[in-house]
Amino acid sequence: DIQLTQSPSFLSASVGDRVTITCRASQGISSYLAWYQQKPGEAPKLLIYAASTLQSGVPSRFSGSGSGTEFTLTISSLQPEDFATYYCQQLNSYPLFGGGTKVEIK
Amino acid sequence: EVQLLESGGGLVQPGGSLRLSCGASGFTFSSYAMSWVRQAPGKGLEWVSTISGSGGSTYYADSVKGRFTISRDNSKNTLYLQMTSLRAEDTAIYYCAKLLYNSGSLRSPYDYWGQGTLVTVSS
Asked: What is the pLDDT of residue B105?
């Protein structure tokens, strides 16, 4: 079975910071990876799919990269509304989510 | 505007059953596979099940296989999750979600989610 490992599980950052979150798969998943943002009390929101395709309506400060086993989500300049938990999801086989990365205000 | 609205959650005893519903609007329901995803309190996301647009293909996580049944009524634009033999570890918010692609493949992210319905399994 494929395992997904997100890192870090928690990070503290300031408005304006560049933030990078990593998602590693235990075996190659091509580009079948998506990223979601979830705020407390809300449903997840799709940000990135196919590893690097920005979902419609998502600000361009969000970007995704990678293929195979290592992927990154980058927020180029953190905004107040970006403080949330982020999840990766692999779709190469049965869907599987990573453990999440909580981004909090420093 | 795409809307997904779950209902049917509540408190149920261990070993009991519950049926969740998800009403859909704003898109051609029968053209898209749909999924259920759950989130235990304070925990991460867990995929539960997916059903093809026609309803002819279904997929389940090992943790619910044999206990949960996903189905859909395309004439009513409604998705269902029948849950039986419920356990404490099934306690979670259950979200229905629409797959982005209408290809019928499991290899699609979820572009729309409902607000979720809470299922609590406790005596």
From this structure: 78
